[in-house]
């Protein structure tokens, strides 16, 4: 990807829709596994090439939550734990750690992208 590529959820949905358009695909069946992007394509109104969507979970039985996420899941079960986790995810040290988002990419996810992911948790009305 280009360094200036919009890799937000909506940006990725636009990349997907642009790809369908560039390939001139019609009557597409999108199979969603884990990411959830097809819903964003629909939300953007760029679903004219899509006729069906299939939602397939990649988690089952003993592989969910993934081992890297289990400490965070335990933290969210404690009173105030979800709020504390979101505060920790605002710090570069925590968010880039191999036990957090640092484990999901071979290269460092840019802070501007992670900010877009976590900023909504600080909006007024978010009740932890």
In short:
With 128 residues, this protein is α+β, with helices and mostly antiparallel strands. It has helices spanning 9-22, 37-43, 70-76, 81-88, 92-95, 111-118; strands spanning 28-33, 50-56.
Structure in words:
- With 128 residues, the protein is α+β, with helices and mostly antiparallel strands.
- It has six helices and two strands; from the N terminus they run αβαβαααα.
- It has helices spanning 9-22, 37-43, 70-76, 81-88, 92-95, 111-118; strands spanning 28-33, 50-56.
- A two-stranded parallel sheet has the order 1-2.
- α2 links the parallel β1 (28-33) and β2.
- The termini are far apart.
- The model has no long low-confidence stretch (mean pLDDT 85).
What's the alpha carbon Rg, rounded to whole Å? Answer: 17 Å
Q: What pattern of helices and strands is seen along the backbone? A: HEHEHHHH
**Taking all residues together, what is the mean pLDDT?**
85
What's the number of extended β-strand segments? 2
Widest sheet: strand order? 1-2
Can you tell me the overall shape?
globular
């Amino acid at each position: 990807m280009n360094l200036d590529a919009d890799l937000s959820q909506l940006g990725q949905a636009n990349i997907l829709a642009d790809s369908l358009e560039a390939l001139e695909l019609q009557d597409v069946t999108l199979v969603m596994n884990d990411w959830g992007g097809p819903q964003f394509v629909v939300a953007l109104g760029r679903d004219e090439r899509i006729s069906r969507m299939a939602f397939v979970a990649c988690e089952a039985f003993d592989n969910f939550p993934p081992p890297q996420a289990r400490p965070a899941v335990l933290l969210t079960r404690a009173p105030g734990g979800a709020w504390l986790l979101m505060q920790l995810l605002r710090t570069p040290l925590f968010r880039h750690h191999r036990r957090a988002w640092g484990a999901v990419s071979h290269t460092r996810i840019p802070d501007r992208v992670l900010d877009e992911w976590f900023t909504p948790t600080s909006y007024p009305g978010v009740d932890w």
